[in-house]
Design goal:
Radius of gyration of chain A: 58 Å
Largest interface: A-B, 35 and 39 residues
Strand content of chain A: under 5%
Largest sheet of chain A: none
Oligomer: heterodimer
Distance between the termini of chain B: 16 Å
Helix content of chain A: over 70%
CATH superfamily of chain B: Response regulator
Strand content of chain B: 15-25%
Strand order of the largest sheet of chain B: 2-1-3-4-5
Shape of chain B: globular
Order of helices and strands of chain A: HHHHHHHHHHHHHE
Radius of gyration of chain B: 13 Å
Chain lengths: 623, 121
């Protein structure tokens, strides 16, 4: 049936001069299309080479950013920071112990000072006794003088005794006054100076404690960062692997320039060959008259095949360029992500942008400085205690003087009693006075021993407090100096890490920004595919027009021998995709496949038919 | 010093991608624009491996393999074809000429490096 139809068409076509004219027009059109394909096939090389050169540069820079990022992470997780973390933990514990100890000491000192004040208030009573003693002495001196004057020559020597008593009264008055002054001074020292120093120490300790709490929080953050390092390192490693994958995809896609070029060249060569055959038809019109319908049918068939090949080439090029753009943008976004992760980990992505380490270093320097001040306060405390001890010593001396006065009074009283006894009955009143004077000496001794006892207590407390403060000062000085040195040793590597991190992060920021900008410029500048696709689309449209014209002239399908006739076309193919398309179109023409098949993905993943895929990929074969 | 690998391909962008891939892994790369250029360079310098395209102007990949095998220093070096050609007939032709292996384009960088490592030992 088909053969009969073909025979009828052949007879009609042979006589149709329009058919020959159409063939001759096809020659011109196919030659023009071939020229367009030849031009476009080689035109993409320069732009692809530019992208390739950019890729090399991006790869190097992405690698450098990954190295910087890893460097930041490894510095955080490194021995220096780990050592500093452990050292800081120890020193913070040490400082807390120190603060607790100092707090305890201050509480003790405050209690001691309270006891000293209590003891000092006890001195007031004996001192009042001295004032009373002074009055009585003066009164007894006056009475002795009066009695001595009354007795006249019989009481010779009592005048002198009376003067001595008066003189001693003055001395007791003076000494007790001085003791009172000294006692008030001592109370003032205890109340004002020492209390102020203790309050200052409290304040300093609160300050240090506050800083230490903050430092402890910073340290916890550092520990957290440190423990997150391995996760961030894994993230960076993943991101680097993804970047490598992006690069790999770009390298693969870049080769489609060459693949598509060859596909276009194969189409162009086929069109040239078809041109030659059609041209031969026009030149040897009479000799080839019997082949005219076959040639028209073949032209339609070949053009349809080539349109399918070009559509496929077009799809491959578009897909490759989209992959190149997508993967390059992927590199930029992964580098930005890597940089953000690293910044977040380093703790410098805060609003102030200040470095974590700088703040910690500044806090710890402040602690050292406050501890230094505390040491100074301790020295003041020690000096104040020295003053207290000195004042107590002075008081003791004055109390000793009063004791001596008491003894002198006793001697005077004894002397007066002897003289009164010699005077006989007339001297009885003087004897009474002498007894009164003697009782005063006993009172004096009683008062002085009371004050002495109190002063001994104060002295003991003062000496113990002073010794404690002195000892504490020496220990604290060495402790604070030790901590300051230790902090210095810990801060030096942290400072080094901080400086290195700061410089690295700045470099990383700049590198990521520059890389992203360059990748953006490169991807937005890729236009080669649009030009190629535009040309290929127009060629495909022109080929489809020829296909339609050929079908109008010879509407019968080429039949099952079509594949045989197109062996020369098939021999030109080098790629599986080309052969797949050829086979599919041939099957459609021979009625073995549905026409819609060519509209879909013709190529799909290429599977080598005979060789099994191994670990080196299904497109490799080792001989 | 890294091993020297020659890439012969008339497509500059393919040479660029092969060169990029190999250099990242520390290989030295010599580029040749076609078979003739490759043979001239092979006569002048020792290479450890040759990766060549099949269809090239002046001298194709098969001609290049035959020529290379005639050069004493290239007699036993691995020669891998890197081409869009996937027909078994062509592969047999390449094998007969002295090719060590055959990669159909496009290659993946990791795959090319694995092949290079495998054939270079």
């Amino acid at each position: 049936m088909a053969n009969t139809a073909k025979h009828i068409i052949n007879n009609e076509i042979r006589e149709d001069s329009n058919a020959y004219r159409t063939c001759s027009l096809w020659v011109e059109r196919l030659a023009r299309l071939s020229a367009e394909l030849r031009t476009i096939a080689g035109s993409t090389e320069t732009e692809f080479l530019g992208i390739g050169a950019g890729l090399h540069d991006f790869y190097q820079r992405a690698g450098e950013i990954s190295r910087m990022s890893s460097d930041v992470v490894s510095r955080f997780a490194g021995d220096e920071v780990n050592g500093a973390i452990n050292g800081l933990k120890e020193i913070l514990d040490h400082m807390c112990d120190y603060l607790n100890h100092a707090e305890h000491e201050t509480a003790q000192s405050t209690g001691t000072l309270g006891r000293m004040n209590e003891l000092l208030s006890k001195v007031t009573e004996p001192l009042a006794g001295f004032r009373k003693l002074n009055k009585v002495l003066r009164m007894l001196g006056t009475s002795t003088k009066i009695e001595s004057a009354r007795l006249g020559q019989r009481a010779a020597g009592f005048d002198t005794l009376a003067e001595d008593v008066a003189h001693l009264a003055v001395q007791v008055n003076e000494k007790s006054g001085t003791i009172l002054e000294q006692k008030e001074e001592l109370s003032a020292v205890i109340r004002q100076t020492l209390s102020r120093i203790l309050a200052m120490e409290d304040e300093q300790r609160d300050h240090v404690r506050m800083i230490l709490d903050k430092t402890r929080q910073s340290l916890a953050t550092l520990c957290d960062i440190n423990s997150r390092c391995s996760a961030v390192a894994a993230d960076i490693s993943d991101a680097s692997a993804e970047v490598s994958q992006n690069i790999s995809e770009v390298v693969t896609s870049m080769q489609f320039h060459d693949i598509v070029r060859q596909q276009i060249e194969h189409v162009q060569e086929t069109l040239d060959e078809l041109c030659g055959k059609l041209n031969e038809m026009s030149v040897h019109k009479e000799e080839l008259k019997s082949d005219i319908s076959d040639r028209i049918g073949e032209t339609g068939y070949v053009c349809e095949l080539q349109a399918a090949q070009l559509r496929h080439a077009c799809d491959e090029l578009m897909s490759a360029v989209e992959s190149i753009i997508g993967n390059l943008q992927g590199i930029a976004s992964k580098e930005v992500h890597m940089s953000d992760e690293t910044h977040g980990m380093a703790g410098v992505a805060d609003e102030a942008g200040s470095s974590f380490f700088t703040e910690m270093e500044s806090d710890l320097s402040l602690v050292t400085s406050v501890l230094g001040e505390s040491l100074e306060t301790n020295r003041k405390m020690s000096s104040a205690m020295n003053t207290v001890a000195g004042t107590v010593g002075e008081i003791v001396r004055f109390v000793g003087d009063i004791e001596n006065i008491g003894e002198e009074i006793e001697l005077i009283a004894l002397n007066a009693q002897i003289k009164a006894a010699r005077t006989g009955t007339d001297g009885a009143a003087l004897g009474v006075l002498a007894e009164a004077i003697q009782r005063l000496s006993l009172d004096t001794l009683l008062h002085t021993s009371g004050i002495s006892e109190t002063l001994t207590g104060i002295t003991e407390i003062t000496e113990s407090l002073y010794a404690g403060v002195e000892k504490e000062a020496a220990v604290l000085e060495s402790e604070v100096l030790g901590m300051a040195n230790e902090l210095g040793d810990l801060l030096r590597p942290l400072r080094k890490v901080n400086e290195a991190l700061g410089a690295l992060l700045i470099r990383m920021d700049e590198s990521v920004r520059d890389l992203s900008a360059d990748i953006g410029r490169t991807t937005s500048g890729i236009t080669v595919h649009r030009k190629v696709v535009q040309v290929l689309d127009s060629v495909v449209d022109a080929l489809n027009e020829i296909v339609a014209e050929a079908h109008a002239l010879v509407p019968v399908a080429p039949g099952s021998d079509a594949a045989e006739k197109l062996k020369a076309v098939a021999a030109r193919y080098t790629m599986h995709s080309e052969r797949n398309i050829h086979a599919l179109v041939t099957e459609i023409k021979s009625g073995k496949a549905a026409p819609a098949a060519t509209q879909g993905k013709v190529s799909g993943p290429l599977i080598l038919p005979e060789k099994a895929a191994d670990e080196l990929g299904d497109n490799f074969e080792l001989f | 010093m890294g091993k020297v690998i020659m890439t012969a391909d008339d497509s500059a962008s393919v040479r660029q991608m092969v060169s990029f891939t190999l250099k990242q892994s520390g290989y030295e790369v010599v580029e040749a624009v076609d078979g003739k250029d490759a043979l001239q360079k092979l006569s002048g310098q020792k290479v450890d491996m040759l990766i060549t395209d099949l269809n090239m102007p002046n001298l194709d990949g098969i001609g290049l393999i035959k020529g290379a095998r005639a050069i004493p220093t290239c007699k036993f070096i691995p020669i891998v074809m890197l081409t869009t050609e996937s027909q078994d007939g062509k592969k047999q032709e390449g094998k007969a000429a002295g090719a060590t292996g055959w990669i159909v384009k496009p290659f993946k960088p990791d795959q090319l490096l694995a092949v290079v490592k495998k054939v270079l030992g």
